[in-house]
Amino acid sequence: MIKRLQVLSGAALLAFASSFSSIAAPADDTIIVGLSADAATFDPGQISSRDNANIAKHIFATLFTVTYDGEIRPYLVDKTELSDDGRSYTFSLKDGLTCEDGEPLTAEDVAYTFTRDADPANGFTGNAPGFVFTTLGFQSAQALDERRVRIDLKARTSLALGMLAQVYIHCKDSYSKMSLEEASAHPVASGSYRLAQWDRGSQVVLEKIKDPGNFKKIVFRIVPEVSTRTAELVAGNVDIITNVSPDQIDAINSSQTAVVKGVSGTRRMLVGFNLGKGVEGLPGSKEIQDPKVRFALQYAVDVPAICKQLLAATCERLTSLVNPPNGNLDLMPIPYDPVTAEKLLDKAGYPRGTDGVRFQIRLQGPRGRYLNDAAVIQAIGQYLTDIGVQTDVELLEWASVYTPMLRTKTMGPLFFLGHGGVTWNPLYDMSLFATPDAATNHSDWTDQRWFDDWKVARDAKTPEEARPVINRMLKLFYEEGPWLQLYLQPDFYGVSKRIVWEPRRDEEIELFAATLAQ
After folding, report:
1. I need a surface site. Which of 99, 161, 187, 442 has the fewest CB within 10 A?
2. DSSP secondary structure string for all residues of 345-381
3. Half-sphere exposure for 390 (CA within 13 Å, toward CB)
């Protein structure tokens, strides 16, 4: 049945693609990317989503950059000095840096960037002020002279340089003259490309102003519907598309124009246990407060089968919130074993009733946000129901319905979600639970043992020094934590045979090294 559906989908796809053939193919100096969502803003302090950041990273330079292999390298920085107490970084900038407006890019611009992003009067909620600064405990930034800038943090942390790679540097002369509204639509570049045109809901056009970058023009076309993105790729109208549906992989690979490149992403998929006040009184909310119940439910879900049958990928179940290979190597993936799940629930005091039901619970999740999410969520609901936990599945629209529920922590006792992660430092992944009231602690998990150890691990000079504490924390997360562990989301990109480009595991679309195929 699956193969037949793929064949029918491929035939329909090729017919669909023929309707796009009249659109001109990209010029040799242009690369075109099909994205599912438009940018929301180009104000550096407000940028938060992955699609938005994938455009912005070609406009704005950063102090450091994280490579394809997860290595942290200086970008604007020439030299780094660290104070004896580990709380103050002094960065010397490279010579000859400039902004799009012709202004030299100096230490004053870097200090201005951090100060502007952190200013409460601006009300920014983007990734830099909302996650990077909070996790690092950013205190202040000061230009010492034209090339040297000092950044002060509340505490020593090995996360600093990698986190700073997410802060978009912008130039004081132009931004200090703009209103917030003007800044959101008219970015002034500090990086390789400038914004040339933004047709909202349709396309974003960037033009190269300096190295690096092999194409003079980058076009991000907004194509929300997945079949349309695929058809555009097969027709040769775009060079790269994201989130290829598994049932269209064969059709793309059998075309003459494109192939699918898959990677094991660093986005960790999970079913969260909402332990907070947002679900008090709802069916199932009381039962999941018991760590023994949470651990028993891990055995009920066949994660490798979900990956194989619904995501067209093989996978190994995750053991914690830390991406491999940085986890606790003593922890083994919990197998699919419904018999053990039922025995543990019996032992925990939740036997089946006369109707075969142990207790009821609601599982909520988005439709269309993650790879084949609706089918995955429904499968998980059935697995739980099979062991007597009667699970009501509710699928919700992502942006206007589910996201506000996540922000206010009012989603169901069980909720499906994916968190992006990294491979360069385990503490980055663990910083989702930096404080009990952190916005990213969607589960309202408040185990004091975790948060006491977090301070010790965060303040260590290196992840290696913190390793014994990290391992202890991950063991606690494994046995009693707030997630039902699932998988790393496989990411499928459609790539035109016209270009040479390799996808990254962290969902960043970096086009600087992309070239035309020979």
Report:
1. 161
2. HHHHT----TTS-SEEEEEEEESSSSTTHHHHHHHHH
3. 10
Do 455 and 309 contact (CB within 8 A), yes or no? no
State residue 493 phi and psi, 5-degree precision. -115, 135
How many Å apart are CA 518 and CA 516, to the nearest integer?
A: 6
Amino acid at 148: R
Token reading at 265: 């992403």
Scanning 19-154, the segments in alpha helix (DSSP H) are 50-56, 107-118, 127, 133-136
* Amino acid at residue number 7: V
d(CA 312, CA 178): 48
Separation between Cα atoms, residue 34 and residue 18, nearest integer Å: 18
* Average pLDDT of span 351-368: 96
Residue 119 has pLDDT above 70, yes or no: yes
What are the tens digits of pLDDT across the range 394-421?
A: 999 876 788 889 888 999 999 999 988 8
User: How far is Cα 210 from Cα 13, in angstroms, rounded to an integer?
Assistant: 39
Nearest to 237 by CA among 509, 498, 500: 498
CA distance 234 to 171: 41
Closest alpha carbon to 410 in 285, 274, 284: 274
Span 335-353, pLDDT tens digits? 999 999 999 999 999 999 9
Closest CA to 257 of 497, 38, 499, 513: 497
Q: How many CB atoms lie within 10 A of CB 235?
A: 21
245, 98 Cβ separation under 8 angstroms: no
Percent of the chain with pLDDT over 70: 95
Residue 1, pLDDT score: 30
pLDDT higher than 80, residue 205: yes
Which residues, at least 6 apart from 455, have a Cβ–Cβ distance to it below 8 Å?
none
Pick the residue with more confidence: 499 or 49? 499
Measured in degrees and rounded to the nearest 5, phi and psi for residue 279 equal: -120, 10
Long-range residue pairs from 497-501, CB within 8 A, at least 24 positions apart, any chain: 497/256, 497/257, 497/258, 497/259, 498/25, 498/26, 498/236, 498/239, 498/257, 499/31, 499/239, 499/240, 501/239, 501/240
pLDDT at position 4: 33
Phi, psi of 177 (to 5 degrees): -95, -10
Burial 54-78 (b: 16+ CB within 10 A, else e): bbbbbbbbbbbbbeeebebebbbbe
Question: What pLDDT is stored for residue 313 in this prediction?
Answer: 87
Print the SS3 string covering 397-456. Answer: CHHHHHHHHHHHCCCCCEEEEEECCCCCCHHHHHHHHCCCCCCCCCCCCCCHHHHHHHHH
Phi, psi at residue 295, to the nearest 5°?
-70, -40
Q: What is the pLDDT of residues 86-114, one digit of tens each?
A: 999 999 999 999 999 999 999 999 999 99
Residue 5 predicted with pLDDT over 50: no
